[in-house]
Amino acid sequence: MDLIFNQAVTQVELSGIRQFTYMVRDTPGACALTIGEPDLNTPEVIKEAAKAALDANDTHYPPGNGCAYLLEAISQYEARAHGLHYAPGEIIMTVGATEALFASLSTILNPGDEVILPTPAFGLYEALVRLRQGVPVALPTQHSHFQIVPEELAAAITPKTKAIVLTSPNNPTGCMYTKDTLDAIHEILKDRPIFVLCDDVYRALVYTQGYHSFAEYADMRDRIIVIQSFSKPYAMTGWRLGYCMADAPVMDRIQVFHQYAVTSIPSFVQRACVTALQTPTDDVVDIFRKRRDYVYKRLVDMGLKVEKPEGAFYMFIDIQKFGMDSVTFCTRMLKEGLVGVIPGIHFGAEGYMRLSYCYSDADLKEGLDRIEAFIKKLSA
Ligand code: PMP
User: Fold this and answer.
1) What confidence score (pLDDT) does residue 18 get?
2) Residue 174 near ligand 1, beta carbon < 6 Å
3) What is the pTM of this model?
4) Of 95, 231, 239, which is best to mutate to test ligand 1, by the most ligand atoms within 8 angstroms of its C-beta?
5) For domain 7-42+281-379, is the CATH number 3.30.750.44?
6) Nearest C-alpha to atom 10 of ligand 1 is from which residue?
């Protein structure tokens, strides 16, 4: 029988990152530098808080947007740590940042609406926009050290532009937008009816001074949606917990989508989220900073071109000089060099590969030795 599916769903492929990751996993003897999650475990105190909540039978339907004590804790944490002021009623706990992004885009997009995606970008955005029958508009930044060029942003805006997604620090580049870049973006957007989704899920993993989020431009508060996650700073990827924050009228609509999509996040994890917000991340930042310095030096010493990342845990490496597309390069490096990284095309940028340094020092050394040997062989 011919069954007709939703057209948008039919046209979206499964994540290229995941597919390549599976190929690496299934290659015997391969060393993977692919994964986008901390190799550390969730801190014990956070796990204990969830266990205690379970034992106290905190297992019933919680309020749709999240428990009042957690929304209050997030409101205070964001004000204290980031200077962002959102009332508990302007926050929704979501199933990871993924649901926060999906609920936000679902709330604002009509079919045909354009969303500007500075590239390279996390592949999720393009898929979500397409699933909502929106039109992703790529804004390449490879030629400008991964900063948005104001004139190019202005030129990408049309009457159909509904939103832009800003990811800082960025996946896959690890770069952060400078204050100058943000000021220039603000100047262009401040009088336009365009939403700004600030995907700041890596903001706790920053290795330099001077981080700024677009969320700080309070005069645009009515159009800003902040996306956050517990996944990265607290090694809680499997818990699937995130949140979004927005001006009350925007949140009033996002909660409709959220309620009918998932009802709420689970109940007994919410006490653990409060504990997570009280858990220092300095040690984790130190670990990743050391790894970043090691990996960056190794890559530069090999003669590879890469921007020094200021946050997150990725390196986005220029491989254009090898004269191959990124899938061919990464597939050959996997098969011949037994080391796996993700092709840049999966982030909308050909001629690059993404290396993750969410691995032990020994694994990183081994992986980098193999990359070095492979590129030496190519150049021989
Ligand atoms: N945004 C970015 C930039 C990411 O890299 C990721 C995860 N890789 C997400 C959102 C989704 O995170 P979560 O686990 O909270 O759904």
Assistant:
1) 86
2) no
3) 0.96
4) 231
5) no
6) 97
